[in-house]
């Protein structure tokens, strides 16, 4: 318990405190009026307004498009279901930068739609909204569909026997049971889109800017650190509120529901209506999820086959001090270190949280662990930037800074994956081992470990994928001569010229493939009940 | 005494789940704790096993106070209610677990596993997955696992609770034989009186964390300590009575009691066999309210005019129909004054 607490104190609480101090303290005195001053600026108010409404619209769109998908995956049994499930999940672990570039290739200047019909969406908000739907489709399908698949269909049958029509039975029995899950998913999507960074940074151009992007601009372009700090605090409060709401809906979710094994609830579709629903979902997935990625890959080969890929290996001296391809090596190294950190910290925290004598304080820590997930990567990166670059803790020159930040973002995933599995281990199994002469540590090794080994691997895979794709925090602290893949992609995109553009596509494709492989390995390992993501 | 509890008390919040319990178990004795759910009997086992710390009192095993001795060092065996077999190990892995914890060499473990599986009637099951076992087989593996390290005290929590009736009756006999042969000291808890009476040398009835009665199965069956114990054992005919000279005055009229019964206000039990049916014009007049077939006899529920219902045990052929009017007389050999 002490290790995770210390880790969070030093690498999360301390940077956050530094942000607050930077924003509100001037020459040793506190200026709470700074908040009002910043809020009074019209461009800040505009950013706040845009952040909120785009998140709302993204959430509603995602729900509308993804709920049929959740239904199909939960209730229907059809050939290729496993493939569809995997395809649907891929976007969630794809780095935001890849999503950004993929939509750029689809709807941007010289993109597929531009070539075919002269349609460009990259100057409109639609590109951002579509990318958000793409990204969060899996959140809704996993959260709502996961519960839907476990709802006992006989409940609906009971309603039918009492005279309810098919739709009335769904509306009065299934929908109320799903409502808390839908609310939880909606809040999660709202949170992710509210704190959207990579997607907006790439697709938003100069017109559209969320809080996250604005914090980054204030820091790296305008160098107004105190305004950035105040914006971070505003974001912090907003995210805290959303997380609290989410925790509340999740607590209500599992009350008094009859859950059954998901494998027995699916049926083959019957009748034209159900086949049409299935067809519609497959078409949506193909158009919305697969097409952008396919276009991305196609664009990366546009220049004489491997031209862009070959260019990646050359030192160009402009954007980078090293050949961009070295970013692959950097990313992998950082990801390995970050994964190790996240698994150790998250694992220890999970074990501490499952102890039966865990007090209220420890359980409060559970919620605290989730904070970095929602508080957004940019906060973490910005906090590291201003807190850990001077004594007492000067890590600016150390390579460990990037893995540390990525681990902080990865720990919540590890905890979310490990906790349900650890909690599912019957304490009496441990007691049985104790009565047979196993010491507590031996009992953990003999009873818990064999059961959580798989979850541990999955958690490690998640942490790995998260840190590979991590952009928001890394972009603040990665050193120019050691860029990670997402940072390199963003930098290439930030420069004019077809060659840079093509290289960005190529590098993005590489990143996508690495992440997809990591995910497919995960899919093989995971069972339906493992973890909440 | 192998095991003695002295004033053992466990509180969950305000409620005392074990309330100053004193209990002794001698070597080679089989003691069965009997009580309804929530009476604290499982907590008693957990306290002895070291899984539940005492709030006050002591537990002494083999003359040594167990305060501060963790569960894995107490050298007692516990068979859990739902077995708690380790799902990721096969049968042999489960049975050998305790031996491994004691550092027994591999050869010895294999030998002992075979020996125990033979003993519990599952020879050759060593390689099977525990998930593939039936309830009765799981029960046997759990028993073998608990016996393998030769614990000085074996504790069983509702040992046969989840099994169907015929299997339960067969296993109870097997267990009794087995414990007799091995000389194992056993402390079992159950809510099933049939199981307790069949298994135990001595029965301890618990109520609300306290011991209500302790004695041989015969003693407990013949003279329940109070109305609670009597009702828990399934006796319905329990009333307050004023005992006079070899006769007790009850709502059912005068009931003969043994000569040496102390006088005063007492609780009286009439066992169903002691309720004799006579023609309606003799004895206490009752209407037959219900009858249930019990295999060897028929339980007849009788409603007197102004008194609580009576249960009578009748031979199959002699049993009256529902609605019949009968008279009732009482047999002194089947009455007992409680306490």
Structural features, described:
- Chain A: Residues 48-244, 328-522 form the ABC transmembrane type-1 domain.
- Chain A: The chain crosses the membrane at residues 53-74, 86-106, 126-151, 172-205, 225-248, 275-297, 332-353, 365-388, 400-419, 455-478, 501-522.
- The complex is a heterodimer of chains A (533) and B (339).
- With 533 residues, chain A is an all-alpha fold.
- Chain A has 23 helices and 4 strands.
- Chain A has 2 domains: 1-40 and 301-533, MetI-like fold (Orthogonal Bundle); 42-300, MetI-like (MetI-like fold, Orthogonal Bundle).
- A two-stranded antiparallel ribbon of chain A has the order 1-2. Chain A has a two-stranded antiparallel sheet with strand order 3-4.
- In chain A, α3 (42-75) runs antiparallel to α9, α5 (96-107) packs across α13 and α13 (271-300) crosses α23 (498-525).
- Chain B has 339 residues and is α+β, with helices and mostly antiparallel strands.
- Chain B is 25% helix and 34% strand.
- A 6-stranded mixed β-sheet of chain B has the order 6-7-8-3-9-10, with helices on both faces. A 5-stranded antiparallel β-sheet of chain B has the order 13-12-11-14-20.
- Classes of the chains: A mainly alpha (533), B alpha+beta (339).
- The interface between A and B is medium-sized, with 19 and 26 residues.
Provide the low-confidence segments of chain B as ranges: none
| Total helical elements of chain A | 23
- Biggest sheet layout of chain B: 6 strands, mixed
CATH topology heading of the largest domain in chain A: MetI-like fold
Identify the CATH homologous superfamily of the largest domain in chain B: P-loop containing nucleotide triphosphate hydrolases
Q: How many domains would you count in the coordinates of chain B?
A: 2
Helix percent band of chain B: 10-25%
Strand content of chain A: under 5%
CATH architecture of the largest domain in chain A: Orthogonal Bundle
Can you count the helices of chain B?
A: 8
